[in-house]
Amino acid sequence: MNYKAFSLSNLGKVRPNNEDSFLATETEGIFMVADGMGGHKAGEVASNLTREIISQRLVAHPSSDPMDQQLREVFLDANAKVRVKAAEEHDCEGMGCTCAVLALKENEFFLAHVGDSRIYLFRKSTLKQVTRDHSYVEELFIRGLITEEEKVEHPYKHQITRFIGCSNKLEVDITSGPLLNGDVFMLCTDGLTEEVPAPKLEEIFARNLDPKETANALLNEALNNGGHDNVTVLVVRVVGKKTSFFKKILGW
Length: 252
Fold this sequence. Notes:
The protein is α+β, with helices and mostly antiparallel strands and about 250 residues long. The chain is built from eight helices and ten strands.
């Protein structure tokens, strides 16, 4: 498959610094967003460190191990290194970050995430959230204790239950599935989804714009609705299968 991607990260209208980070490599098919948390600029340190580790392990020096194993190991590696740095440097105490990674390999996609940074898939005119938030409110919803509508204004909606740096043992959600021509993925931090409701997200994707136009439309919508947090959005479109010369010319 071939991929076309575009990413944007914006400070927003309230925050003094941008604690989000992202990675987009069309050739290798590795994409990531992370949202830092912690005092001063510690969140920025955590998200940037996580990006560097993912870039080194999955892009610069990938192994031959199965992709799901690589993803789990790189998350655990990032978790360990973030915790070490947080323990060694006073200004980094308590830092961490959410993280969502999309890996596209031949005819498959792989997703790995912790926290509330999300991945969506737009397929056959329908937008679907394909990650589930690791948050206190989401757990209440899963148990049937609150409704979808009650999640929006819940006082603890920002309480994350799982993130890089949270504990020595990190559980990473990893899923995979078939990749189809025309699929469009979106990775984003909660600065987007807190400002743009799901129906509006789907409306923007239904315009069938290219990744750059889609990302810009999403960012503008988030900023117009307040931009209360950093906003990072990464849009990836599957544009076609790689075809060999012999298959193209001779039909092999």
